[in-house]
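# step 3/5: fold
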Amino acid sequence: MYPTPTLIIFKLLLFKLLLVIPMATSQSLSNGDDHESSSLFCESWRFSVEANNAGNWSAVPDRCLEFVKDYMTGDRYKSDFGLTAKNTLEFAKSVDIAEDGKDAWIFDVDETLISFLPYYESHGFGKTDQKEFVKWGLRNKLPALQASLSLYKEIHQLGFKIFLLTGRPEWFRNFTTTNLAEAGYSDWERLILRQPSDENKKAIDYKPEKRKQLLDEGYRIIGNVGDQWSDLMGYPIAQRSFKYPNLMYYVA
């Protein structure tokens, strides 16, 4: 017995629908959910950056420019930054500080104590023009990161010797000192900047060398706070290191 023409037509239509419906669904997903998929990607990219899985990245992905702007200028950055400062202080308060004055705490400067965020707000959150970046930094005073300013004062009050370790060059000293003072920072033990012999060194090499010098001077490096992994990694490391978020740039 052969199938009737009606049954054959029905089966052909059903087969065609099975082929077409998935294609239509895929099409609607690719077109209708672009924003959602970009948001998900950018969340994953942010995690990759902060976990140091992204490696030596040089620019914010084009599809994440708006995401980074919203994050850095919104409440999430302030919340993440503030919680890091809170965690840092909790550890600092747990330390039994010795009376010999050799318990040291290190702070990075840019995006740790003071912020270039106003530059990115006016110039965009894409790839940074280094020459323009430096020129802008010389013309403008950078604001304090308030959570870090409060943390800094608490750390100092606890009795730690504070060292500021920055990748800025020596010829930035007067400008940096003035900017930090106007932002509310004071009473640091030493401001360490790049000397001419440090000019061609990567941060991941330069900063551990400076920490080693402190160690050789008899200091115990209890805490270290920075916004870059290169602020924190390499021997010697602090007893505890704390990383602030930064989606604006990466320093190797």
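# step 4/5: annotate
The longest strand covers residues 161-169.
# step 5/5: archive (pending)
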